[in-house]
Design goal:
The chain is α/β, with parallel strands linked by helices. It is built from 11 helices and 12 strands. The protein folds into 2 domains: 40 residues, no CATH class; 282 residues, Alpha-Beta Barrel (TIM Barrel), CATH 3.20.20.70. It starts with 14 loop residues before the first helix and ends in a 46-residue tail after the last strand.
């Protein structure tokens, strides 16, 4: 996984393919076209560091950026891909007492998603197609050089299941961490997964390579037991919570690091005191923080957003149970930019990519009632 991947000649590539190449790959491919290595490296650095394109041996076009400011400083923007599809990304302000405000970029790895989670807007689209490494990296490039934002952290928490497109996701991380390119520290990048154990095992091998051991992993748990989780998240029908726990226990966490266990709190489904206690017991052997996310209703949602007192009650009980708890801030809910709300409804019912995912796309309008007992 760490070597240079075979690529098409530079002359046949556009912006997004080049965005998906490390500096070594780009220099090697350019050299095959007769471009001196020094000139190619300078062009690569200029493209990523300054947002300018220098070189007449590769075709470049600016990706069209459509941005929308939502709820103060939160910004949702899309990039047109030229095939009637678009990526969706969100820039989220993070306020710190000591360091002021930084920006976290939530990137998409797919258009739509095949995982079928009932609470997620993206899942209602089904999987339309995967994004290439270049199309993932271009979200960082557009945020940095066209939306004019300094991105500190990147989270693979936008549209799609990263483990369902892992080759391209890992390649994008190679590019994002390239010191001649974006130079994003691996410690500032998080991959979030619904719990695909095969993907977790591959990431476990990836982080053993030099330069990637500080990569972060987040797990979307969202239920205290297999029965509720299987109804909310079809992935659990194939990969049970006990198996997921075993994979996490075997994951090579760096010293002092911890997983992020994400828990979407849904009224009447997974927010009871007994749910909190059962979840706390499942988390106990893991080195992790519990990230409680008040549910952001998708379109035609069968559930409302939780009441504030119920969120506070659940968090207080988890803390009393010994969990280290963080609360995910709700930003962009009213304009479908919050966690679990990304996804263009006009793209629904598109054909899924052959061979990807374990679950068939969700049929639009189908709702699932979950017994909260």
């Amino acid at each position: 996984m760490s070597g240079i991947r075979p690529r098409r000649p530079v002359a046949e590539q556009g912006l997004l393919d080049i965005m998906g190449m490390t500096s070594d790959e780009f220099v090697a491919a350019s050299f095959e076209q007769g471009v001196p290595r020094g000139r190619a490296l300078q062009a690569y650095r200029t493209m990523f560091r300054e947002g300018r394109f220098e070189g007449d041996w590769f075709g470049i076009e600016d990706p069209p950026v459509n941005r929308r400011e939502v709820e103060g400083q939160t910004t949702k923007f899309t990039l047109a891909l030229g095939d009637d599809h678009e990526t969706e990304s969100v820039l989220i302000p993070m306020h710190h007492r000591k360091h002021g405000t930084t920006r976290t970029l939530c990137v998409s790895s797919q258009i739509g998603c095949a995982m079928g989670c009932e609470f997620c807007e993206t899942a209602q689209m089904g999987l339309v197609r995967n994004l290439s490494a270049g199309q993932i990296v271009s979200q960082w490039w557009a945020a940095t050089h066209r939306v004019d934002t300094t991105v500190k952290n990147m989270v693979f928490m936008g549209m799609g299941e990263p483990m369902d497109n892992l080759d391209e996701v890992l390649q994008s991380i190679r590019v994002l961490t390239d010191h001649n390119g974006p130079a994003v520290p691996s410690s500032n990048i998080s991959i979030s997964t619904v719990g695909r154990i095969d993907g977790i095992n591959r990431v476990a091998e990836f982080v053993k390579q030099p330069g990637y051991h500080r990569l972060n992993l987040a797990i979307s748990v969202n239920a205290p037991n297999d029965r509720i989780r299987s109804e909310l998240m079809p992935i659990n029908r194939a990969m049970k919570m006990s198996e997921l726990q075993e994979a996490l226990l075997a994951f090579p966490l760096r010293g002092g690091a911890a997983f992020c266990a994400e828990y979407v709190l849904i009224p009447g489904v997974n927010d009871g005191d007994d749910h909190c206690d059962e979840l706390s017991r499942w988390l106990e052997p893991l080195r992790c923080s519990l990230n409680v996310i008040p549910y952001n209703p998708r379109r035609d949602s069968p559930w409302p957003a939780p009441e504030e007192h119920d969120v506070e009650r659940f968090i207080s009980r988890a803390i009393a149970n010994g969990c280290f708890v963080k609360r995910r801030g709700t930003k962009g809910r009213d304009v479908m930019a919050a966690c679990g709300q990304l996804g263009n409804p006009e793209i629904r019912r598109r054909k899924r990519v052959e061979g990807s995912g374990l679950v068939q796309p969700v049929v639009e309008g189908r709702s699932l009632k979950v017994d909260p007992r």
